[in-house]
Amino acid sequence: EIVLTQSPVTLSLSPGERATLSCRASQSVNSLLAWYQQKPGQAPRLLIYDASNRATGTPARFSGRGSGTDFTLTISSLEPEDFAVYYCQQRTKRPKPTFGGGTKVEIK
Amino acid sequence: QVQLVESGGGVVQPGGSLRLSCAASGFHFSSYDMHWVRQAPGKGLEWVAVISYDGSNEDFDDSVKGRFTISRDKWKNTVYLEMNSLRAEDTAVYYCAKDLYSGHRSYYMVAWGKGTTVTVSS
After folding, report:
1. Which of A13, B11, B75, B107 is deepest in the core (most CB within 10 A)?
2. Between B45, B61, B62, which is nearest A44 by CB?
């Protein structure tokens, strides 16, 4: 199983600040990585796929980069609605798709 | 717009069975693979199963293989998750999700339902 480790576990920032979230894979996933946002009581929402492609409706302030084992999600300037939990997910066919443990972006 | 509505959750004893349903609308159901993903209370996301757009093949996480089955009804635009031999560790919110791509499997989940809660407890 490919293990995804997200850091930090919690990120405390103020609106307008830049957020940088990390996801590290236990083995290469090439660029087959996605980022999801989940707010309390809601289903996840796909933000980024294939490491850097924004999903339909994802604001431009969200950007993803990386390949192999190291990936980053950057929110250039935090809006109030961006405070949430973010998960990375790899989609290599074998083994099965797995998710990271999540990073909570909270208001400082 | 795409809508996925799960139902069928509830409280069941260990060893029991439950069938979840997911009614889909707003897109061409027969063109997309469909997934089930679960989230235990206070925990992260765990992929459970997928069924191909035409129902010809499916895939499962090892933790549910042999206990869960997945199926779909193209006439009812509905996907099902049949869960047998349930364990306490199956307790979770179960989400139905639509694959990103039409006609082939990406394992990226672009649309999600609100989820249905399954509690396995005596």
Report:
1. B107
2. B45
